[in-house]
Amino acid sequence: MNTDIAMQLLKRPLTLICILLAPVLALAQQSSDTPDRLAPFYPTPELIVEKMLQLAELKPGEHLFDLGSGDGRIVIMAAQKFGAIATGIEIDRDLYERSVQRIKKLGLQQKARIIHGDILKQDYSSADVVTVYLLPSSNEKVRPLLEKQLKKGARVVCHDFEMSGWTPERVVRVEDQEGRQHTLFLYRR
């Protein structure tokens, strides 16, 4: 830094404080605008996706929401193979963009879409089926929203982690192609 500029800054302590605090304030603002991720991206194997949708008895024309939709595989299969109107919510911009591109490439825009946003700030009142693959602590955060918004008869399928406080209608254990065990929980509101 130029010595003359440094001397001028020292004569203006408020300016110096603002310059030093600017990066800290910017970081604080950025983190407060960025919602928490409720789970890491860990893709559900295609076989398990299909079993989840079969367990939910997803029918053509029904509305499905996938919370934390990752690369969009549940949304895409729900639209493509089951004829559902499928919406995914994904907070990660790269995963969101990848999903949107894949939906376009497959020509599924009429039945499948991804919302770039926070799953805790969405309206699920039109859902017939909700799929969830979040951590147990995240399921606890989502549960009150689903209890408030889901209509009677809506089905919720959780992958590997239960929705605490709810009693599953069915519990299914499935082995994937790599020999990993998956547990699926079906709930009905």
Protein described:
This protein has helices spanning 3-11, 13-33, 46-55, 73-80, 93-106, 136-149; strands at residues 63-67, 85-90, 112-116, 129-132, 155-159, 170-175, 181-188. It is an alpha/beta fold and 189 residues long. The chain has 2 domains: 3-33, no CATH class; 46-188, Vaccinia Virus protein VP39 (Rossmann fold). 34% of the residues are buried.
Report the radius of gyration as a whole number of Å.
22 Å
Q: Which topology of the largest domain does CATH recognise?
A: Rossmann fold
Low-confidence stretches at least 5 residues in length (pLDDT < 50)?
Answer: 13-35
The proportion of residues forming helix, as a percent range, comes to: 40-55%
Q: Please give the count of helices.
A: 6
Distance between the termini: 64 Å
- Please give the CATH architecture of the largest domain: 3-Layer(aba) Sandwich
The count of DSSP E runs of length 2 or more, i.e. the number of strands, is: 7
Quick one: biggest sheet?
7 strands, mixed
- Class of secondary structure makeup: alpha/beta
